[in-house]
Amino acid sequence: MADADEGFTDGPEFACGCCGQCCRRDPYYAVSLLDIRNISMALGMSPAGFFGKYCAVIDTPGGFRYPAILAPDGCPFLKGVLCAIHLVKPIGCWVFPESALLPVTLLKKSIIAIPTCAILALPDDDRPLKADPELLAARDLHFEHTKQYFEEHDAFDEPSWQAATDRLIEKLQDADELGRRSAELRAKAEAQVKKISGQ
Ligand code: SF4
Ligand code: SF4
After folding, report:
1. Do residues 132 and 39 lie in contact, with contact meaning Cβ atoms separated by under 8 Å?
2. Rounded Cα–Cα distance for residues 95 and 85 (Å)
3. Is 135 a member of any domain?
4. Which of 58, 140, 142, 194 has the most crowded Cβ, counting Cβ within 10 A?
5. Is-contact 53 45, C-beta < 8 A?
6. Nearest CA to 3 among 194, 133, 196, 178?
């Protein structure tokens, strides 16, 4: 049985098979406030120009409003099987599939709709995939600040978005905040391992 503490950092490592299917299966891909800044800069576009061309604010199945890259025919940044904006891809893309913190056995079931995904070749395991707690903590900060911004704003508005993005960057640079959140995520992963192993 896995040691609970190992469940977060020492679970099985995932090696992406680069089939590209996870970038084709969804109608949209979430972008955070900071993703919008990073991607628009990399593309040499204004943030408003990038947002207007590629994104929209969508109502998520979870019942909140969130910005996303629209992908009616797969993500527009998928070129062949590779991401054309890999270095600045959205935080949600960076943490997939480790972010689920699901034991591998359950993660495989959740991903069954992508038969080419390398996850399905992993042996069953009661631990989540090995993950970087600080990256997941950063993901949560992106998510919370972005969600809050679109709760307070009907649409993308560049001046207020700039200010909100600066506040997010400040939080991301707060080592204490990231440390606290990493510890919470570790506890969550430990609880998942205990639950699945019946401890
Ligand atoms: S941004 Fe890149 S990694 Fe994310 S869905 Fe699009 S192609 Fe895939
Ligand atoms: S579906 Fe799985 S193997 Fe294919 S690109 Fe996505 S994460 Fe990698």
Report:
1. no
2. 15
3. yes
4. 142
5. yes
6. 194
Q: Is 1 domain-assigned? A: no
d(CA 154, ligand 1 centre) in Å: 26
In a domain, residue 181? The reply is: yes
The count of structural domains within the chain is 1
Q: Which of 74, 75, 73, 56 is nearest to 65 (CA)?
A: 56
Q: Which residues are near ligand 2 (CB < 6 Å)?
A: 16-22, 97, 114, 116-119
Q: pTM score, two decimals?
A: 0.90
Q: What is the pLDDT of residues 90-141, one digit of tens each?
A: 999 999 888 878 889 989 998 888 999 999 999 999 888 888 888 999 999 9
Is residue 76 pLDDT above 90, yes or no?
yes
Is 175 part of any domain?
yes
